[in-house]
């Protein structure tokens, strides 16, 4: 039975079948013996688009999460292999997977010297759930089945009724409505990280500015020039500061992947956020020591506003999905070894066991014929073409995919698609307010379990930009969340994926891999973390 536990389990004490207490050191830089360090320990990372917010309760962007992980520590984290490890929590225990007791490290302090206490987490979770915060990830608390989370989010109960209690300065108690064995995994997510109450009360929305920002992570926010750079420096008060090797981390927002690649090749950047799809073959050939491909729990798809005509007709949604040759998109447009997607949850997700939908087993020719039949039945053909807009955020990679998709739909169905491009912050607002027809979307797992994907399409999820509502789907996902066995849960997840293939509120295109350019001089870059948790504290610069 011990094989299911991570490597640090040998340093844990098993109290009973359901009660586990663990003590281990926080993951930080681990320099192999014989490796010489460079005198200058500064890392420059591409971050894609400009970071919308560094407030963990108001952020929903993946690139922001990367920076927030450098600035704030939560209760748990993951190591370079995706194994769960303690962070601010030194250990935790449970007897029933419904009540969890977490013990905090007594050497954890904020960057201003204040101790990190259980009350900080209570305040932070209440703020996350408070409707006045309007957090885009408030729904995440409901997915943990935390007591009263749903009622607080709706405004029916006060945040003080949440099932989180500070038993003393260094002990937290969580009360869940359901047995949830993977609850500690869910605490890795950015949204449940703590914030410093006094700082927020003093500065309000300006607390995330340099000079105001108080975190408990390995680095401090020194400088933030919007659309130019973000500079972080080592936090001397960090609880494991002696294990952090980097002195400075610079994040550069560069939306154009070709421009980012060129700045990497010129020596300005150590790690890119992405790499341009059309240059992948050349880069893999000429710079193979720098091209880094790692697994990723992410799905790329097009979301459909299912409550707006004509997309309230499932026949149209299915026709568009069937007519997309995903092999062309994966192999010739995206490349990098991505897998075509016919369901939402990536195959690499723990506990994933979805069956291919029937249309995925057909030839592309048969899919195209069925797409034409469905579209004509819905009242559209080449003589009366369907016309709509496809929204995507500024990115050369997204533009190339959208252009290819538009061409495939035009060739097969005679559909007329207008491509709409928006800058990242505007794009997020457009999706959130539902002012679109089809939109480029991506979803990455917040933890390694199918519910992190499938709960997104539930009716009560505020991040469900498609406005998809299905009582049948909600019931099946809830059944999975309440299941007491892995087998029951797996069967329910399989059924949920089948419902999505039937209703088609999203059009899956492919499952990501993480493709970046990483300088050989960078050590400690994680190669096996599918959640893309790559904290700067684990990296260092080698002497070359």
TrEMBL record:
<dbReference type="InterPro" id="IPR030678">
    <property type="entry name" value="Peptide/Ni-bd"/>
</dbReference>
<dbReference type="InterPro" id="IPR000914">
    <property type="entry name" value="SBP_5_dom"/>
</dbReference>
<dbReference type="Pfam" id="PF00496">
    <property type="entry name" value="SBP_bac_5"/>
</dbReference>
<protein>
    <submittedName>
        <fullName>Oligopeptide ABC transporter substrate-binding protein OppA</fullName>
    </submittedName>
</protein>
<keyword id="KW-0732">Signal</keyword>
<feature type="signal peptide">
    <location>
        <begin position="1"/>
        <end position="28"/>
    </location>
</feature>
<dbReference type="GO" id="GO:0043190">
    <property type="term" value="C:ATP-binding cassette (ABC) transporter complex"/>
</dbReference>
<dbReference type="GO" id="GO:0015833">
    <property type="term" value="P:peptide transport"/>
</dbReference>
<comment type="similarity">
    <text>Belongs to the bacterial solute-binding protein 5 family.</text>
</comment>
<dbReference type="GO" id="GO:0030288">
    <property type="term" value="C:outer membrane-bounded periplasmic space"/>
</dbReference>
<dbReference type="InterPro" id="IPR039424">
    <property type="entry name" value="SBP_5"/>
</dbReference>
<keyword id="KW-0813">Transport</keyword>
<dbReference type="GO" id="GO:1904680">
    <property type="term" value="F:peptide transmembrane transporter activity"/>
</dbReference>
<feature type="domain" description="Solute-binding protein family 5">
    <location>
        <begin position="84"/>
        <end position="464"/>
    </location>
</feature>
């Amino acid at each position: 039975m011990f094989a299911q536990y991570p490597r640090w389990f040998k340093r844990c004490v098993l109290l009973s079948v359901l009660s586990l207490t663990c003590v281990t050191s926080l993951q930080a830089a681990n320099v192999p013996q014989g490796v010489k360090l460079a005198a200058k320990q500064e890392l420059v990372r591409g971050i894609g688009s400009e970071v919308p917010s560094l407030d963990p309760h108001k952020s929903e962007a993946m690139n922001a999460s990367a920076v927030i992980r450098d600035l704030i520590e939560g209760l748990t984290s993951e190591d370079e292999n995706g194994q769960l490890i303690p962070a601010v929590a030194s250990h935790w225990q449970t007897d029933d997977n419904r009540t969890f007791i977490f013990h905090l490290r007594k050497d954890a302090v904020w960057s201003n010297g204040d101790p990190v206490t259980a009350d900080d987490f209570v305040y932070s979770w209440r703020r996350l759930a408070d409707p006045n915060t309007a957090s885009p990830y408030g729904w995440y608390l409901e997915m943990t089945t935390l007591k009263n989370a749903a009622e607080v989010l709706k405004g029916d109960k006060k945040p003080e009724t949440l099932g989180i209690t500070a038993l003393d300065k260094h002990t937290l108690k969580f009360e869940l409505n359901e047995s949830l064995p993977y609850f500690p995994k869910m605490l890795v997510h950015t949204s449940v990280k703590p914030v410093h109450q006094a700082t927020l009360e003093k500065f309000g929305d300006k607390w995330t500015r340099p000079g105001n920002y108080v975190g408990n992570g390995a680095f401090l926010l020194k400088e933030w020039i919007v659309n130019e750079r973000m500079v972080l420096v080592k936090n001397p008060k960090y609880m494991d500061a002696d294990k952090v090797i980097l002195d400075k981390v610079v994040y550069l927002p560069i939306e154009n992947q070709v421009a980012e690649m060129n700045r990497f090749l010129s020596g300005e950047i150590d790690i890119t956020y992405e790499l341009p799809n059309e240059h992948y073959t050349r880069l893999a050939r000429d710079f193979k020591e720098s091209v880094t491909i790692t697994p990723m729990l992410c799905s790329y798809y097009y979301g459909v506003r299912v409550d707006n005509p004509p997309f309230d007709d499932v026949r149209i949604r299915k026709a568009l999905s069937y007519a997309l040759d995903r092999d062309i998109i994966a192999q010739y447009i995206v490349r990098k070894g991505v897998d075509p997607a016919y369901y939402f949850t990536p195959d690499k997700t723990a506990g994933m066991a979805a069956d291919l939908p029937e249309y995925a087993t057909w030839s592309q020719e048969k899919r195209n014929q069925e797409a034409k039949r469905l579209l004509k039945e819905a009242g559209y053909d080449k003589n009366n073409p369907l016309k709509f807009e496809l929204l995507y955020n500024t990115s050369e990679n997204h533009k190339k995919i959208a252009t290819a998709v538009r061409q495939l739909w035009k060739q097969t169905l005679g559909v007329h698609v207008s491509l709409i491009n928006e800058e990242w912050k505007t794009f997020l607002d457009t999706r959130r307010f539902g002012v679109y027809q089809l939109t480029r979307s991506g979803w990455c797992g917040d933890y390694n379990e199918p519910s992190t994907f499938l709960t997104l399409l539930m009716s009560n999820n505020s991040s469900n930009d498609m406005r998809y509502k299905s009582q049948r789907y909600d019931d099946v996902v809830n059944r999975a969340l309440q299941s007491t066995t892995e087998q029951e849960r797996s069967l329910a997840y399989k059924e949920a994926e089948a419902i999505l293939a039937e209703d088609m509120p999203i059009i899956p295109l492919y499952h990501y891999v993480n493709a970046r350019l990483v300088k050989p001089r960078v050590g400690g870059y994680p190669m096996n973390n599918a959640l893309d948790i790559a904290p700067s504290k684990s990296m260092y610069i080698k002497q070359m």
